[in-house]
Amino acid sequence: MYFLTLRKCGLFGVCCEGIPQQVNYLIDESMASSKGSNSVINYLHHLFDNYGLGEKEAELHCDNCSGQNKNRFILWYMAWRTMHKLHSRIGLHFLIVDHTKFAPDWCFELIKQKYRRTRVSKLEDIAAVVRESTVTGVNIPQLVGLEDGKVYVKAYDWQTFLQPYFRPLQGIKNYQHFSFDSSAPGLVIARDCSDSENVTRFQLLKDPENLPPVNLPPVIQPPGLDQKRQTYLYDQIRDFCDDESKDICYPKPCVETQDRRCRGGRAKGCS
User: Fold this and answer.
1) Using one digit for the tens of pLDDT, what is the confidence trace for 18-33?
2) Looking at the predicted structure, is the pLDDT value of residue 138 above 60?
């Protein structure tokens, strides 16, 4: 199995240190629309709506990954939330170089320890690993979707939705701390250090009189697995799976053209 490519499951966690509790989004490869900022925004939006505590202010701490966290779309989303008063104030902070371990890494390590001692064949097994990784219930599993294509966490096209209304902050990588306030729609206050007197105030909106709507963006359908990947999983991986999970994770591939994709496992019209 070392030389094979098993069915993949991504993990995205957000930890609320005050409780403490971490929501872990489990992303089957058929549900992975992207690994960039769109996905991060979708999971954050779902977390605020479904796991929020009714807070009006939030302080978010992230690593410096520019493709996922430290980019213009994340700033635009925070501005969108505050201008529509979904939060009255948001602080967005990025860890400094060589200090990149924080609360989510603690929760991830607990999951890893349990995972190494557990046989996993399907998504529900991974969810059980997350749930049982702590005796106090710190880790919470949240499936993004199932192997058969059922979606629990909808994906929205935030990038296309926000692009017409906002402009990028130049030199974003030079700053570590950003703040947004509902009293100043579209304005971001950026600092290189938390106690720095060098403060940059930048209006992210192209036109402060033209705010983006509060309505959610268009839904992005999950990509599913193409026929080549389905065939590989069926031929190479199925035999390593327990009998109960074989038809859930590794069903017989769809008899369709190469450019068509199943949303999950076996779809209508498949043999």
Assistant:
1) 899 999 999 999 998 7
2) yes
Q: What angle do CA 94, 108, 102 make, to 5 degrees?
A: 30
Backbone Cα Rg of the chain: 21
For 241, list phi and psi in degrees, rounded to 5.
Answer: -90, 155
As given in the structure block, the two tokens for residue 61 are 């701490």
What are the DSSP E strand ranges found in the chain?
A: 9-16, 21-28, 57-62, 89-94, 139-143, 155-156, 177-181, 187-191, 199-203, 219-220, 225-226, 261-262
pLDDT above 60 (res 201): yes
Q: How far is CA 255 from CA 150, 195, 224, in A?
A: 21, 61, 15
Q: What is the pLDDT of residue 69?
A: 84
DSSP letter string over 157-190?
-HHHHHTTTB-PPTTGGG-SEEEEETTSTTEEEE
- Strand 21-28 to strand 139-143: parallel, antiparallel, or no bridges (unpaired)? parallel
Q: What is the secondary structure of 52-74 as a DSSP string?
A: --S-SEEEEEE---TTTTSSHHH
- Give CA–CA dist 181/202, Å, rounded: 13
The pLDDT value recorded for residue 141 is 98
Work out the percent of the chain whose per-residue pLDDT is above 70.
93
Cβ 171 vs Cβ 233: under 8 Å: no
Q: What is the pTM of this model?
A: 0.90
By C-alpha distance, which of 112, 103, 95 is closest to 13?
103
